[in-house]
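Action item from last meeting closed. Structure (495 res):
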């Protein structure tokens, strides 16, 4: 390990712990900024592809997309970098190996990676200034969020990058069914809201609410910082302190409350816009909420189980496709990007009128596959899962580790547990087959907090939505004065 990883850290920080993680050949340093309590995790390695990411816990109270719009707008100019669009400039000129920003249901993450030292330092500078001191101009809000405009027929329409993006995302079958599955699985929590934004609610977001959201959540005390690779740790700690020291300690951030368990299993029917319009547009999902404090070993065991059931070419659940009633399975697995993880599975491209039958066949096959599970299936799955852990498919390891860490760290769980797997694999190899069968029965079959959603094609759904929006805009247009219409036209030309 290079000696520069072992320097004494600056006085404004406290070293909480140091851990060798042999599985990934890294030394992990967990560090706290004394003044603001910001958390920093550095994975020291010899990898020249360095990674920086800053994450904020962002808790939406509606589906107006404020977290998503803010994610776009903070990268549209800042106090130190007041250019029109520094993000696009970096995309064109940087040596970056990764440059992005992501809105999750309960956090917003800004990651960058580069192999060039100077470039990496510049990227970190731009991102830190962007998140803490964005300009948040009203024209950026209207461009990236939403605004009123006129189309070529002089009709009033909604426009905006996020508005249009979410219209497209929620017309995607996979995005639509996952969003509605999460909403119905956690109806008493913030997860009932679409953090990316529902188009009909995005247009209710005001510029003032947008700015207030930044003040509320974008603060060092509400941040977690991830660093990875062959870099000078003290140099980047000093850079962080240059921003953190400008803020005072805060502790008034919203807590994400857990969902209370259901009393019984739910069966729900929802409409969906036919994507293919070929008589095969039905979809169903099954999901089960897991307990908040599930151990990493149990999560790994569930990963192994899902590989047994769905992962290989010969996986038994693929038999559901043999009679041609469904086109494909939905990506199944354990989702742990929310406070209480959940199991998720289903099928799509189902023949019209066949959803109920396919659901029953799927459920019967699932139970039969669990009963027939044998040690050789589990051993093969363990080998495959272990190989994927030891040999990540990503060629950007820092970003790969970042995803795994933030999925637990955001909920005050031990962030390094997701990277340490060797002892867990050894432990799972010692379990008999009943351990895996019982685990699935406990967390899925006998779990009352479980639901099945049938998404039934509705050919008129899209038309009704469009008519509702068009009627609303026509009414709004009728109430506008000539001066207001002229002002709107002038604004459109500026943007």
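Sequence:
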């Amino acid at each position: 390990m290079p000696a520069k990883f072992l320097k004494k850290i600056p006085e404004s920080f406290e070293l909480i712990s140091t851990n060798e993680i042999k599985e990934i050949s890294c030394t992990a340093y967990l560090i706290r900024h004394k003044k603001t309590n910001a958390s920093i995790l550095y994975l020291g390695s010899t990898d020249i592809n360095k990674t920086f990411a800053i994450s904020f816990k962002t808790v939406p109270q509606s589906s107006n997309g404020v977290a998503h719009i803010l994610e776009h707008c903070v990268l549209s100019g800042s106090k130190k970098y007041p250019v029109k669009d520094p993000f696009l400039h970096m995309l064109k000129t940087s040596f970056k190996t990764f440059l992005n920003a992501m809105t999750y249901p309960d956090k917003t993450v800004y990651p960058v990676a580069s192999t060039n030292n100077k470039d990496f330092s510049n990227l970190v500078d731009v991102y830190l200034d962007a998140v803490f001191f964005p300009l948040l101009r009203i024209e950026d809000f209207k461009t990236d969020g939403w605004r009123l405009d006129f189309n070529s027929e002089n009709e009033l329409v909604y426009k905006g990058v996020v508005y249009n993006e979410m219209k497209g995302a929620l017309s995607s079958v996979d995005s639509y069914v996952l969003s509605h599955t999460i909403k119905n699985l956690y109806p008493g929590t913030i997860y009932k809201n679409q953090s990316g934004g529902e188009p009909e609610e995005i247009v209710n977001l005001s510029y003032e609410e947008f700015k207030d959201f930044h003040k509320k959540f974008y603060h060092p005390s509400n941040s977690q910082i991830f660093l990875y690779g062959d870099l000078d740790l003290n140099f980047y700690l000093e850079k962080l302190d240059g921003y953190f020291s400008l803020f005072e300690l805060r502790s008034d951030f919203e807590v994400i409350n857990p969902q209370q368990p259901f009393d019984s299993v739910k069966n729900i029917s929802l409409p969906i816009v036919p994507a293919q319009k070929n008589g095969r547009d039905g979809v169903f999902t099954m999901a089960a909420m897991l307990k908040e404090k599930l151990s990493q070993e149990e999560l790994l065991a569930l990963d192994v189980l899902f590989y047994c059931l769905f992962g290989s070419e010969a996986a038994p659940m693929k038999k559901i496709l043999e009679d041609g009633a469904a086109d494909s399975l939905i990506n199944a697995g354990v989702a742990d990007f929310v406070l209480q993880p959940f199991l998720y599975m289903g099928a799509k491209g189902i023949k019209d009128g066949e959803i109920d039958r396919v659901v029953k066949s799927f459920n019967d096959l699932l139970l039969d596959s669990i009963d027939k599970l044998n040690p050789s299936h589990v051993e093969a799955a363990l080998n495959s899962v272990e190989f994927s852990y030891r040999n990540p498919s990503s060629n950007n390891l820092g970003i790969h580790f970042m995803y795994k860490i933030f999925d637990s760290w955001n909920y005050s769980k031990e962030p390094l547990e997701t990277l340490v797997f060797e002892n867990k694999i050894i432990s799972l190899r010692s379990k008999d087959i009943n351990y895996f069968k019982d685990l699935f029965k406990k967390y899925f079959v006998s779990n009352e907090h479980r639901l099945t959603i049938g998404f039934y094609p509705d050919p008129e759904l899209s038309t009704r939505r469009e008519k509702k929006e068009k009627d609303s805009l026509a009414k709004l247009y009728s109430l506008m004065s000539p001066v207001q219409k002229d002002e709107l036209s002038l604004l459109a030309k500026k943007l």
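Note appended to the action item: The longest helix spans residues 461-479.
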